[in-house]
């Protein structure tokens, strides 16, 4: 096998994730793009197992990254739903951090 | 060009193609379903690369749980089902930064790894992955379990319905000292029976003046107060 194929795939997926995070306005779509970036890093780690030939180290880190992604999605969706409950919007352009516009 | 290469190319094309649709689709639900396809193709890539446990954990956690959570959030925020025009902001900065990152990293990898052949990895066994996880990486494993627990507790606390209304806290504060003052006379009569048996066992001389002086004054006050009540009641 040629390891450059999954490496380039991971790089392109990471670029797509960056594009999605910067492009999207809806917070849920931003989270989806973040998932794409995390998966690209996972693919990188698993492929590094093959090329470096010290087995299962990258796989272990990929499992850790999956756990981190699960925690991130849980907290992120809680924040999004709470924000929607307070402001009835999920557009991250409209989020003001000074807290002056309550309601 | 072996079978593994063909599989990697095909699955990589599926992953990148549906990933492109995830970040460009104008319908939120379709973006979520394209995300399922992309993550499934990446699970296939893990299988080809010999990481079976990671592949199945990917299917279980990502396709099974994370995407379902995202679709739940789509429903709970009443996102528009049809195509909506206000999902995106102007494309040029995102295109420049994202394309620069993706193509730059791809060029870096192509330059680093070229067209070098690597031997196919042995199919992964869960036993060896478990030995690696609980041997070399047991401390990060435990730290991550604590992190997951605290993140989920934090998510529960964030989801409380009363978090957005800080105003009615002003009312209970003046009422709070009253119940604090009320239990004090209730707590002071409780040491009253204790000084009375303490003079009989003599070996505790030091606690007696401290314990006896304060409750004695309190006792006198408290004994004086009920007596007129009884007399008034009696009269």
UniProtKB/TrEMBL annotation, chain A:
It catalyses: a quinone + NADH + 5 H(+)(in) = a quinol + NAD(+) + 4 H(+)(out). It is an enzyme of class 7 (translocase). Its EC number is 7.1.1.-. PANTHER family: NADH-UBIQUINONE OXIDOREDUCTASE CHAIN 4L, NADH-UBIQUINONE OXIDOREDUCTASE SUBUNIT ND4L. Pfam families: Oxidored_q2 (PF00420). It comes from the Bacteria. Signal peptide: none annotated. InterPro entries: NADH_UbQ_OxRdtase_chain4L/K, NUOK/Mnh_C1-like. It is a multi-pass membrane protein. The keyword NAD applies. This is NADH-quinone oxidoreductase subunit K. NDH-1 shuttles electrons from NADH, via FMN and iron-sulfur (Fe-S) centers, to quinones in the respiratory chain. The immediate electron acceptor for the enzyme in this species is believed to be a menaquinone. Couples the redox reaction to proton translocation (for every two electrons transferred, four hydrogen ions are translocated across the cytoplasmic membrane), and thus conserves the redox energy in a proton gradient. Keywords: Cell membrane, Membrane, NAD, Quinone, Translocase, Transmembrane, Transmembrane helix, Transport. The lineage of its organism: Bacteria, Bacillati, Actinomycetota, Actinomycetes, Micromonosporales. It is found in: Cell membrane; Membrane. GO terms for biological process: ATP synthesis coupled electron transport. Belongs to the complex I subunit 4L family.
TrEMBL record, chain B:
It catalyses: a quinone + NADH + 5 H(+)(in) = a quinol + NAD(+) + 4 H(+)(out). GO terms for cellular component: plasma membrane. It comes from the Bacteria. Keywords: Cell membrane, Membrane, NAD, Quinone, Transmembrane, Transmembrane helix. Gene3D superfamilies: NADH-ubiquinone/plastoquinone oxidoreductase chain 6, subunit NuoJ (1.20.120.1200). It is found in: Cell membrane. Residues 169-208 have a biased composition (Pro residues). It is a multi-pass membrane protein. Its EC number is 7.1.1.-. InterPro entries: NADH_UbQ/plastoQ_OxRdtase_su6, Nuo/plastoQ_OxRdtase_6_NuoJ. Residues 163-235 are annotated as: Disordered. The chain crosses the membrane at residues 6-24, 31-49, 55-79, 91-110, 137-158. NDH-1 shuttles electrons from NADH, via FMN and iron-sulfur (Fe-S) centers, to quinones in the respiratory chain. Couples the redox reaction to proton translocation (for every two electrons transferred, four hydrogen ions are translocated across the cytoplasmic membrane), and thus conserves the redox energy in a proton gradient. This is NADH-quinone oxidoreductase subunit J. It comes from Winogradskya consettensis.
């Amino acid at each position: 096998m040629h390891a450059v194929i999954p490496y380039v795939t991971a790089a392109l997926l990471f670029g797509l994730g960056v594009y999605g995070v910067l492009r999207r306005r809806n917070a849920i779509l931003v989270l989806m793009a973040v998932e794409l970036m995390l998966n690209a890093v996972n693919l990188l780690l698993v492929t590094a197992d093959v090329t470096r030939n010290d087995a299962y180290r990258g796989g272990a880190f990929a499992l850790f990254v999956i756990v981190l992604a699960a925690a991130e999605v849980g907290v992120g969706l809680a924040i999004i739903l709470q924000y929607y409950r307070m402001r009835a919007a999920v557009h991250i352009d409209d989020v003001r951090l000074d807290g002056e516009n309550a309601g | 060009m072996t079978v593994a290469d063909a599989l990697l190319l095909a699955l990589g094309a599926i992953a990148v193609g549906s990933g492109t649709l995830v970040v460009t689709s104008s319908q939120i639900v379709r973006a979520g379903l394209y995300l399922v396809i992309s993550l499934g193709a990446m699970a296939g890539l893990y299988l080809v690369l010999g990481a079976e446990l990671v592949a199945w954990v990917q299917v279980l956690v990502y396709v099974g749980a994370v995407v379902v959570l995202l679709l739940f959030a789509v429903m709970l925020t009443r996102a528009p089902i049809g195509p909506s025009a206000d999902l995106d902001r102007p494309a040029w900065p995102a295109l420049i930064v994202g394309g620069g990152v993706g193509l730059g990293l791809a060029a870096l990898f192509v330059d680093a790894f070229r067209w070098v052949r690597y031997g196919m990895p042995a199919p992964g066994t869960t036993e060896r992955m478990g030995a690696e996880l609980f041997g070399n990486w047991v401390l990060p494993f435990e730290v991550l379990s604590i992190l997951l627990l605290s993140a989920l507790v934090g998510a529960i606390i964030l989801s409380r319905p009363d978090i957005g209304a800080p105003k009615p806290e002003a009312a209970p504060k003046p009422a709070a000292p009253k119940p604090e003052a009320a239990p004090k006379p209730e707590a002071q009569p409780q040491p009253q029976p204790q000084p009375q048996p303490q003079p009989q066992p003599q070996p505790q001389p030091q606690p007696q003046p401290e314990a006896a002086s304060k409750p004695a004054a309190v006792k006198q006050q408290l004994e004086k107060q009920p007596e007129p009540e009884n007399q008034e009641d009696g009269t």
